[in-house]
Every structure is written in structure tokens, then in C-alpha cells.
Write a structure and sequence with these properties.
The chain has eleven helices and seven strands. It has 319 residues and is of the alpha+beta class. The chain folds into two domains: 143 residues, no CATH class; 151 residues, MucB/RseB, C-terminal domain (Phosphorylase Kinase, domain 1). A hairpin with a 2-residue loop joins strand 5 and strand 6. The longest helix has 25 residues. This is Anti-sigma factor.
């Protein structure tokens, strides 16, 4: 199914007119390949633009502008030639083979994947932002690919990850993509959060609540349904009073309970444990939160774990 990723990106960002939205939604319903592309775009939907708008940035050098414009021109020419070649290939040969549409619209695979093939409809400012963001993400992806693919590649930074299972290593790498500014701009919605939690329970068959960690200095920001090697993986993101975001990740593990143990993966502190056939991993930047103490509280069930107790206005409920 040939549809420009710029259109899909505008659909994900809510920038398409209603009639165009209806056409895209029909394509999502009819094509697993389009549904998969939309799902991957949603996985990277964070308010990066708003975060950058708050920064005082130097002007873009004219030489960089010319270089990027030349790259855009070359890429557009290549994309046009590729499109012409693909138009002669039978539809069956180009259809997507990922069953992501079967998982639901709010499920995202925890792996590296290109955000777009060609963006001919975007203006220079948007392309410049895409270029910078792409260069940043490419650098991270080069370090994350070995563990996301289950390979034996080594990390670029020292790690003490003994005892950490592959899914925890992948989740820690994914957590590196988060910044304080982008997460701070997220405004959790009670209805949406409750719907995602319902899917986690009834579709993914993971019996869990969202811990209310405000008394520990962590504000709930969002919950996501991810996939790791075709297994449901839940990521709950919190923002501490200082430092980068902290995530609590959960995956079904048919193993005996295990007390919290600490490690370090890609420079991220990790505290992992198992309880009730579920594996847990607390992931955060070193020093921002006492993850050891928090992990022990969660393991012992000493934290309020009801979504109804998580207010969206930031007020801590009274005892």
C-alpha cells in the first residue's frame, strides 16, 4: 500500500482534515502494512517541538542549510526513482508482513525502525528538524540495535548488567531516548490511561495497576503497551523532581519470585525483580531517584497501586 509517510505523520499528529483522516483510517483498517507504519509513528510521538521551542538556540549556519537542502534533493530524487520501480512490482510482493495491526492501535514494538521513507511534502523548517532528530536517533540506534535484535553486540559504555535479561536491556536502551523536557510536557489523560490499562489487563493478560509514586517524588506521565519478541511489555513513565524520567517496565515471566537486584545498563541504573509471574524493572538515570529503596517498596507491596488514586492535577491524596 503506497501512502506517503508525511501524510501518516500528519494523521498521527492530528493535522489532517477530517475527510483525509477518514481515508487514512480506511487504509489502516484494510492494510496491515499501513497500520504497522502508523503504530511505529505513534510510538515516537513525544512533544519534541514544544521542548525545542523553549530552548534558546543559535541560528542554523548557512552552510548546514545548503548541505541539508542538497541531501533533501538527492533523497527526493532517489525516492522518486524507487517509487517508479515499485509501481511495476505486483502488490503481493510489496505488502507488509508484520501482524502489528492485530495487536491494536496503541501497541508498539520495542525495536529500531525507520520513521519515514520519504517526506517530499514537508517544508524546509520541518525537514531541518527531521534531519537533526534523525541524526540524533541514528547515533542512539547504532548502540541499541545489538540488544534489541537479540544479538551479541557490546555496549559503547561500561555496563554491569549481569543477571539482567534481554528484555530489561532493551527497555533500558529505549529509556535512553527520553528527555526531561519532552516528558515534562506530557499531560496524562484519565480516560485514555484507563483505556490503555484495560487493554493491558484484558488483551495482554497482565494483571497490574499503575503505582502512585507521588509520595516518592515521582509524577505519573504516561503508560504504554510495547512488544518485545512478540511478548507484551508495559512501560509506565514517571518524572522525578530532578533529573531524567524514570520508567517501571513489566513483562510476564513464568519464573519464581526474585528479590530486587541492582545493575547498570548503558549508563542507566536498573533495579529488577519478579513477583507473581511478572518481571519488573525500574530504570532511571543515576542519582535522580533512590531506585533501590523504591524497588524494595514496590516488591513488598508498600506503594499505593490504584489508577483511581493517581490524580492528573499533581495533588497528593491525603492518608
Amino acid at each position: 500500500m503506497n501512502i506517503d509517510d508525511a501524510i501518516l505523520l500528519a494523521y498521527v499528529d492530528g493535522d489532517l482534515p477530517s475527510d483525509e483522516c477518514a481515508k487514512v483510517e480506511r487504509l489502516i483498517h484494510d492494510s496491515a502494512e499501513v497500520a504497522s507504519r502508523v503504530s511505529m509513528l505513534r510510538a515516537s510521538q513525544l512533544p519534541y517541538k514544544d521542548a525545542f521551542d523553549q530552548q534558546s538556540l543559535p541560528p542554523v549556519p548557512e552552510s548546514l542549510t545548503r548541505s541539508v537542502e542538497e541531501l533533501i534533493r538527492q533523497h527526493a530524487a532517489k525516492a522518486s526513482a524507487q517509487h517508479a520501480a515499485e509501481s511495476t512490482v505486483p502488490a503481493a510482493a510489496t505488502a507488509g508482513d508484520e501482524p502489528e495491526a492485530l495487536l491494536g492501535t496503541n501497541v508498539h514494538r520495542l525495536k529500531s525502525k525507520s520513521r519515514a521513507k520519504a517526506l517530499p511534502g514537508l517544508s524546509w523548517p520541518k525537514l531541518a528538524v527531521a534531519f537533526v532528530a534523525g541524526a540524533f536517533c541514528c547515533g542512539l540506534a547504532l548502540r541499541l540495535v545489538p540488544q534489541l535484535a537479540g544479538g551479541s553486540g557490546t555496549f559503547s559504555t561500561a555496563s554491569n548488567d549481569s543477571g539482567m535479561t534481554p528484555w530489561i536491556k532493551a527497555a533500558a536502551g529505549y529509556q535512553q531516548l527520553y528527555t526531561r523536557d519532552t516528558v515534562a510536557l506530557l499531560q496524562p489523560d484519565t480516560k485514555t490511561t484507563a483505556a490503555i490499562l484495560g487493554d493491558i489487563r484484558h488483551v495482554d493478560d497482565i494483571a497490574m495497576e499503575i503505582p502512585d509514586l507521588r509520595r516518592q517524588g515521582l509524577t505519573f506521565k504516561r503508560v504504554q503497551r510495547l512488544r518485545f519478541h512478540d511478548k507484551p511489555l508495559v512501560q509506565i513513565v514517571y518524572l522525578p523532581e530532578n533529573g531524567k524520567p524514570v520508567a517501571l517496565c513489566v513483562l510476564k515471566e513464568a519464573k519464581a519470585d526474585a528479590a530486587p537486584s541492582a545493575g547498570n545498563v548503558q549508563g542507566m541504573d536498573v533495579v529488577a525483580w519478579r513477583r507473581g509471574q511478572l518481571g519488573y524493572a525500574l530504570i532511571g538515570e543515576h542519582g535522580s531517584v533512590d531506585l533501590d529503596a523504591l524497588g524494595k517498596e514496590l516488591y513488598k507491596g508498600e506503594v499505593t497501586t490504584s489508577i483511581s488514586g493517581i490524580g492528573m492535577d499533581g495533588d497528593v491524596p491525603r492518608s
